[in-house]
Specification:
Length: about 550
């Protein structure tokens, strides 16, 4: 990544400030230059409104066309396709949508619908759910989708150290007929249908369950596995026996993981890719203004929580187990300057879990930028840690994130810390976060339709010692948060739920396992011959939530001649 970008002037607001020179010159001097440039009155940061998506972006027009091959650029690679064992990120979900399907789905208005399940109903107190599967659906190996295979999938999820934490209230799953099953819970589990739209609700064939094959998915999806060469390509072909008549339209899809956003952008511009996901604000802004492409992005908000960029702190790893140190680190991050430098002037700020305007939003008291106070706090903490506050901040090999971490490193070192930087691949970062083998990581999370979907990230019951798998990655334990999580999960009263999640937002701002940087921007940009890339219609005719946190379903796409 170069500091001065060509294209649509993404750094014009900074007088073409070179971000590398900013890092070399030091944060204090660089920040002063940035803020001076922004207050000069000659240029102001580009509003995110200039790159916001319309409601019809990515919705196909005309008659769908059959045939053709789609080439997709994704930003990462996964470690496998077995829901109970593998670590899925946005790329994992994008791959999964092509070949696997979940029991439920979330709509564009944030409600849920049955998907592989034809119906899903609860008893009056929501402690037992009954699912009826759609008849006549076959897996790619020719076997039938029935209640027994769904039960077998859920049993593996509940037995897995990785995934069982998401479904803790479940006490029993059993078949009650060829296509019906019941799920019993030990407390009201009102949001279970939302969980079954996530990784734990994706269903694979019994043959894959029995073999525990993580490398070759056998699902019911619109496309069938053809070839996977990790870190090079994943190719799928049309499922000729797909249960939804007339779909899919494409003959095949090939996904290419290209880790640097600018390399992915170059591949799109030269026609090597037809469509690509990006989370680099500069790339998003460049492509949003190019008439050769169409784009959807997440800058205009969505139902539920935003996807948030933050620094994840391991609250069980010294010196970050010390709340005083975490308070100092929070107060020494100048997030507005980081967003101006690395956010292309379009990245929304975030100091909490919820969008302003969300019913859950509140003034949570997150610490404000105060490097003087941060330095005092570090000096206070040093005697407890051998006279120095030393730790490592790790990120993935993304040039923009490396630049960002270098800037944060300088901010922290300037208040008296000794911070080193390391880079690891995304799969390793996710695995290390689950086992606690880290001190501080760049991270991105949330972006959910209902806040209860964060239960496993925040609950003390899903924390564990370093070395054990825990979905509470920060290993933050707070009884106030635990009580509020139970209140939010078991109540159907909206006022009660709002109070619960506002409490959680405030407590996280006190505990500081997450140091917020801003809302994570995501885009999906397509060549003009790519139609219907954000218009997944569910069996009941409702529209699925669409592109979210870098994941999308490619199955509704068709290609047209240009």
């Amino acid at each position: 990544m170069t500091g001065s970008r060509t294209g649509h002037g993404s750094d014009a607001v900074f007088g073409r400030i070179d971000r590398r020179k900013f890092l070399a010159g030091g944060v204090a001097a660089g920040a002063a230059t940035v803020l001076s440039a922004c207050s000069s009155g000659t240029t102001s940061p580009t509003s995110s409104a200039t790159v916001q998506s319309s409601a019809t972006a990515g919705v196909g027009t005309g008659t769908p066309k059959k045939g053709g091959t789609l080439v997709v650029g994704v930003d990462s690679e996964i470690d496998g396709f077995l829901p109970s064992q593998n670590h899925w990120d946005n790329t994992g979900y994008t791959y999964a949508y092509a070949v696997l399907e979940a029991l439920t789905a979330v709509t564009i208005d944030g409600s849920w619908r049955p998907y592989l399940a034809e119906s899903m109903t609860a008893n009056p107190d929501h402690t037992q759910w009954t699912l009826t599967m759609r008849p006549g659906i076959t897996f790619h190996d020719g076997s039938q989708l029935d209640a027994d295979v769904v039960v077998a999938n859920l049993e593996q999820v509940l037995a897995s150290a990785l995934t069982k934490q998401a479904l803790q209230p479940i006490t029993d799953v059993k078949s009650t007929g060829p296509l019906t099953l019941t799920i019993d819970t030990n407390e009201p589990f009102i949001t279970l249908p939302y969980f079954l739209a996530s990784q734990v609700g994706f269903i694979v064939a019994k043959s894959q369950l029995d073999s525990q094959n993580t490398q070759r998915p056998i699902g019911t999806g619109p496309f069938v596995y053809s070839q996977w060469v990790p870190n090079d390509h994943f190719t799928v072909t049309k499922n000729q026996r797909y249960w939804q008549s007339g779909q899919p339209y494409l003959d095949s899809i090939t996904f290419h993981p290209i880790f640097a956003d600018e390399s992915r952008e170059a591949a799109l511009r030269t026609g090597q890719l037809d469509i690509m996901a990006s989370r680099d604000p500069h790339v998003i802004k460049d492509l949003a203004h190019d008439p050769s492409f169409s784009q959807i992005n997440t800058l205009s908000g969505r139902v539920g929580e935003p996807d948030i960029d933050f620094i994840l702190l391991n609250t069980e790893a010294d010196p970050l187990s010390d709340l005083t140190v975490r308070q100092a680190l929070a107060r020494s991050i100048d997030a507005p300057t980081l967003n101006k430098l690395f956010g292309a002037g379009i990245t929304p700020a975030a100091t909490g879990l919820f969008y302003q305007g969300s019913p859950y939003y509140s003034n949570n008291g997150y610490p404000t930028y105060d490097p003087g106070e941060a330095k005092s706090l570090i000096e206070e903490a040093k005697p407890r840690h051998g006279g120095q506050i030393a730790f490592m901040l790790q990120t993935i090999p993304d040039p923009r994130l490396i630049d960002t971490t270098q800037a944060i490193q300088q901010m922290w070192n300037q208040v008296g810390c000794d911070v080193s930087i390391g880079t690891i691949q995304q799969v390793e970062l996710i695995a290390n976060s689950a086992t606690g083998h880290f001190q501080a990581l760049t991270f991105e999370l949330f972006g959910v339709s209902d806040p209860d979907l964060n239960y496993q990230w925040w609950s003390s019951t899903t924390a564990a010692p370093i070395g054990s798998i825990a979905l509470n990655f920060a290993r933050n334990r707070d009884p106030v948060i635990d009580a509020a999580l139970e209140q939010g999960r078991t109540s159907s009263d909206m006022a009660t739920r709002v109070a619960a999640y506002q409490t959680i937002d405030r407590q996280l701002a006190k505990d500081l396992p997450y140091l917020y940087l801003g809302v994570a921007p995501w885009s999906l940009t397509a060549a003009t011959n790519v139609e219907n890339y954000n218009n997944w219609i569910l069996p009941d005719g409702s529209r699925e939530q669409g592109f979210n946190a870098g994941a999308f379903n490619p199955s509704p796409i068709w290609l047209v001649e240009t």
